[in-house]
């Protein structure tokens, strides 16, 4: 039996301790890289300076619904409470006490966590689908968190 100078590897009869250290180190580095990537992708941006898109004039949802064709294709800012929400966070209904509108954010390649009942600001494009106006959300602010 070969003797190893490192007492922690002495029970590993047929394994090279340098190879084991390298494999462990590579595995840890891979895990840390994946964790870092997951945090970058999933962690919302903290709002230090609110983006200019969220500082514009807020449009009432009832006005969007009543004048949908004049707003179609335009970017608007709306705010209200999140009502019904997709379990995966890809769409939600926003109610501003004048009306409710469907907000779809999956075309913009992001989702939000479950925030039903919370106040939100949404910047997005007005579109009409099957005769119903809706918003394709480009940016959503809930509390101090911005999702985009």
In short:
This protein has 148 residues and is of the alpha+beta class. The chain has helices at residues 17-42, 61-66, 68-71, and strands at 45-46, 75-85, 91-95, 100-104, 119-129, 132-142, 145-147.
Explain this structure:
The protein has 148 residues and is of the alpha+beta class. The protein folds into two domains: 1-43; 46-147, OB fold (Dihydrolipoamide Acetyltransferase, E2P) (Beta Barrel), CATH 2.40.50.200. Helix content is 24%, strand content 32%. The protein is built from three helices and seven strands; from the N terminus they run H-E-H-H-E-E-E-E-E-E. The protein has a five-stranded mixed β-barrel with strand order 2-3-4-6-5. The longest helix has 26 residues, at 17-42. The mean pLDDT is 82.
Layout of strands and helices, then pairs:
Elements: H1 17-42, E1 45-46, H2 61-66, H3 68-71, E2 75-85, E3 91-95, E4 100-104, E5 119-129, E6 132-142, E7 145-147
Parallel strand pairs: 4-6
Antiparallel strand pairs: 1-7, 2-3, 2-5, 3-4, 5-6, 6-7
| CATH classification class of the largest domain | Mainly Beta
Which sequence of strands runs across the widest sheet? 2-3-4-6-5
Q: Span from first to last CA?
A: 60 Å
CATH superfamily of the largest domain: Bacterial OB-fold
The CATH topology assignment of the largest domain is: OB fold (Dihydrolipoamide Acetyltransferase, E2P)
Oligomer: single chain
Tally of strands: 7
Name given to the CATH architecture of the largest domain? Beta Barrel
Q: What structural class do the secondary elements suggest?
A: alpha+beta
Report the biggest beta sheet as strand number plus sense, adding barrel if it closes: 5 strands, mixed, barrel
Order of helices and strands: HEHHEEEEEE
Number of helices: 3
Q: What general form does the structure show?
A: elongated
Give the count of structural domains: 2
Q: Could you list the spans in which at least 5 consecutive residues all have pLDDT below 50?
A: none
Strand content: 25-35%
Mean pLDDT across residues:
82
């Amino acid at each position: 039996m070969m003797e190893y100078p490192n007492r922690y590897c002495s029970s590993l009869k047929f394994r090279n301790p340098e190879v084991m250290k390298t494999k462990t180190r590579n595995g840890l580095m891979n895990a840390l890289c994946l964790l870092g990537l997951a945090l970058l992708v999933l962690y919302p941006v903290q709002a230090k300076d609110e983006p200019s898109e969220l500082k514009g004039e807020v449009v009432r949802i009832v006005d969007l619904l009543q004048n949908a064709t004049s707003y179609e294709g335009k970017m608007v800012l709306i705010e209200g409470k999140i009502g019904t929400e997709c379990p995966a966070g890809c769409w939600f209904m926003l109610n501003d006490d004048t009306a409710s509108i469907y907000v779809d954010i999956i075309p913009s390649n992001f989702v939000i966590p479950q925030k039903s009942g919370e106040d939100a600001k949404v910047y997005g494009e007005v579109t009409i689908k099957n005769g119903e106006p809706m918003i394709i959300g480009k940016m959503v602010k809930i509390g101090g968190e911005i999702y985009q």
